[in-house]
């Protein structure tokens, strides 16, 4: 699979558009209103014993939800009474882990952490290794590499998740990054002891460059091309790509200069990666890649399939319901094979739609009923393969006796709608 990541201005806002084989699957906003990753000093304003949680005031218009179960023994007290439990009036240090979604409040945690190139640090006191690193010797090596560094920061309950990109990387490089991130966590905890309540300690920077680095270092595609119309963005991404190419052993030699094409570009290109600066004054990137049409189709309530069928996406308060319809596609003698064809195409489109709209929580899909067990298995195998492409964890739960397929998707930031592009 080949991918293109287009960075341009759309409707007056700077955005990034990820296309896989020409199909739009993700949209990233250069300037986001998300609070995820922000760190605050917060004041406990109420406690609800029945749900084992408290609500926090950070000076915003709404309170934050803080689970006493999830954050047991990790709470960072800045001002605390005599009780050994979190009480009303306490002041604590928290990081936003989830944005407010609909009627649900934003979620805060004391598991303060940061993501690096090779590791993600946290306050779990545990070592985790990416499941994509399958070699047991390498997994053990990586654990041995990080253990001495974690021991130095045991006072803050330091933990780490070793990312796939750390595989076969030298111990010095991993330890240098781990030390830097853990020191950042410790410095924030130490300095916050002298801060006032309801104060922003650190604003999370979720830049397009960070997302581009994620795409590059995960290397999910046969070929990844990044195209921007901004010179400064091009320069930054160029440096990251040259570094990655060097890590692959090419020392930059594998890149070929790009200077021509249907439109006016310049940049560098290799077998696996490319970065191009769009310089055509006669048109714009959003027109070249027909982004408006892709957005309108991707966020429509009714999505029409090439087979003649369609899917309908209905968000509700509790879950998202997706219905697959035959439309005018029922023809021929073998109706069940027609149903299977529509369902498989719908499964691919549904997986892509979930990613594009950032749909999370419970997802229920009503496929067209299939009667043959081998057809049902083929459909479910297709769905599982497609949802596995998602950057965010999607779990296949089951198919109910009524033929409804149940999925869950981890909540990260709020879902996107057509209103975000108006």
Features:
seven-stranded mixed sheet; single chain; 8 helices; six-stranded mixed sheet; alpha+beta
Could you explain how this protein is built, in words?
There is one protein chain. The protein contains 8 helices and 24 strands. It has helices at 136-152, 171-192, 208-218, 231-247, 285-288, 291-298, 335-357, 373-387, and strands at residues 2-10, 13-20, 23-29, 39-48, 53-57, 64-67, 76-79, 91-98, 107-109, 114-115, 119-122, 127-129, 159-162, 199-202, 223-228, 256-258, 265-269, 273-278, 302-304, 310-315, 320-325, 361-366, 394-399, 404-409. A 7-stranded mixed beta sheet has the order 3-2-1-15-18-17-16, with helices on both faces. By secondary structure, it is of the alpha+beta class.
Map the helices and strands:
Blueprint (H helix, E strand, L loop, with lengths): L1 E9 L2 E8 L2 E7 L9 E10 L4 E5 L6 E4 L8 E4 L11 E8 L8 E3 L4 E2 L3 E4 L4 E3 L6 H17 L6 E4 L8 H22 L6 E4 L5 H11 L4 E6 L2 H17 L8 E3 L6 E5 L3 E6 L6 H4 L2 H8 L3 E3 L5 E6 L4 E6 L9 H23 L3 E6 L6 H15 L6 E6 L4 E6 L13
Parallel strand pairs: 1-15, 6-9, 12-13, 15-18, 21-22
Antiparallel strand pairs: 1-2, 2-3, 4-5, 4-8, 4-14, 5-6, 7-8, 8-9, 10-11, 11-13, 16-17, 17-18, 19-20, 20-21, 22-24, 23-24
Helix pairs in contact: 1-2, 3-4, 7-8
Q: Brief description of this entry?
A:
With 422 residues, the chain is α+β, with helices and mostly antiparallel strands.
Helicity, as a percent range: 25-40%
Strand order of the largest sheet: 3-2-1-15-18-17-16
Percent in strands: 25-35%
Radius of gyration: 24 Å
In terms of structural class, how would the helical and strand content be classed? alpha+beta
Overall average pLDDT:
87
Q: Give the beta-strand count.
A: 24
Distance between the termini: 31 Å
Largest β sheet strand count, sense and barrel closure: 7 strands, mixed
Shape: globular
> Segments where pLDDT lies below 50 for 5+ residues?
248-253
Number of separate helices: 8
